[in-house]
């Protein structure tokens, strides 16, 4: 089958992703074989491209956000049938979806309602699942006493879904950060109650709006650099949730307030084999809410054709760090 793949980790200025002929995916007993129809693009995939190389003689196929149609059902894959329209997030330890077909565990997949187009559904899985687990953890609501939430980086794929999920599922007052007029407008469209500029003094801006503290900060980028003002803004026994924590990380600024630190890695359950089915259920709820009007799909840029040229352009946009919403490629 055709796929986009590369051999050695590389920077964007040495772009090496190519159209390749690769072997068909091998199904495990709990897998579905998916005919890929559209894929969502994520900054994390651009990062992996820059650091992950293939084993000797091998190749790397990235991509873990997709929609498609079920072609084959493994003997232990329950609840799906050939022909089902589906979306999911895949498994970062296996070949990804930048290919014609994908083998994936059925528990991280959900059916796509007929009224939801493949391209729109492809904008939801990674951002939705990451945001859900970051703010709700292993439940479906916020921790007790969380009434004000600050989403840092509200216009990205994860931030967009965090704002919407918080407004759809809770009564929290949701503040988002954005530094450009177009990203501010996007956050407001997502439903943020207040938008402040993270390139300026956030605490001063919130103070001018009559807000002296928040109960939770969800940080989608720059956590280590922003930790001191996060600590100042959060109330004692508040919550900091972040997707970008990596060693070395000095948590001392939040210790004096007994702030709880929550890390989120969207593939944690897949890697550890823990409660995978919960992720499929989250995907299903997000898809249903998108159809009912409770959530917006977040496609901001669309490319036609899974080609090396389109992928390069998408990565250039991702690495500019100026995108809003989600880039989607229709296969």
From TrEMBL:
Keyword Zinc in record: yes
Keywords in alphabetical order: Metal-binding, NADP, Oxidoreductase, Zinc
Superkingdom to which the source organism belongs: Bacteria
Domain Enoyl reductase (ER), chain residue ranges per copy: 10-329
GO MF annotation list: oxidoreductase activity; zinc ion binding
Pfam families noted in UniProt: ADH_N (PF08240), ADH_zinc_N (PF00107)
Keyword Metal-binding assigned: yes
InterPro entries, per the entry: ADH-like_C, ADH-like_N, ADH_Zn_typ-1, ER, GroES-like_sf, NAD(P)-bd_dom_sf, Zinc-ADH_QOR/CCCR
Similarity section: Belongs to the zinc-containing alcohol dehydrogenase family. Quinone oxidoreductase subfamily.
Name of this chain's protein: Zinc-type alcohol dehydrogenase-like protein
Native species: Jiella pacifica
């Amino acid at each position: 089958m055709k796929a986009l793949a590369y051999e050695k980790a590389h920077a964007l200025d040495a772009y090496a992703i190519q159209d390749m002929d690769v072997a068909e995916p091998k199904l495990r007993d709990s897998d579905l074989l998916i005919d890929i129809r559209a894929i969502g693009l994520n900054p994390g995939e651009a990062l992996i491209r820059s650091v992950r190389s293939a084993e000797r003689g091998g190749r790397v196929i990235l991509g873990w956000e997709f929609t498609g149609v079920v072609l084959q059902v493994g003997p232990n894959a329950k609840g799906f049938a050939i022909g089902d329209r589906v979306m999911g997030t895949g498994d970062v330890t296996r070949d990804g979806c930048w290919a014609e077909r994908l083998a994936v565990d059925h528990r991280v997949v959900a059916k796509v309602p007929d009224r939801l187009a493949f391209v729109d559904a492809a904008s939801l899985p990674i951002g939705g699942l990451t945001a859900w687990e970051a703010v709700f953890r292993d439940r479906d609501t916020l921790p007790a006493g969380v009434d004000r939430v600050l989403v840092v980086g509200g216009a990205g794929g994860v931030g967009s879904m965090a704002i919407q999920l918080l407004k759809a599922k809770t009564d929290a007052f949701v503040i988002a950060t954005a530094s450009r007029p177009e990203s501010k407008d996007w956050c407001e469209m997502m439903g943020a109650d207040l938008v402040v500029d993270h390139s300026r003094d956030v605490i001063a801006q919130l103070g001018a709006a009559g807000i002296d503290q928040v109960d939770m900060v969800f940080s989608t980028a720059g956590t280590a650099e922003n930790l001191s003002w996060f600590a100042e803004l959060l109330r004692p026994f508040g919550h900091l949730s972040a997707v970008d924590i990596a060693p070395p990380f000095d948590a001392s600024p939040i210790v004096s307030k007994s702030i709880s630190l929550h890390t989120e890695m969207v593939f944690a359950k897949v890697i550890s084999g823990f409660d995978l089915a919960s992720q499929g259920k989250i995907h299903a709820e997000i898809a249903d809410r998108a159809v009912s009007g409770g959530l917006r799909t977040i496609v901001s840029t669309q490319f036609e054709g899974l080609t090396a040229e389109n992928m390069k352009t998408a990565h250039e946009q991702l690495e500019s760090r100026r995108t809003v919403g989600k880039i989607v490629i229709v296969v």
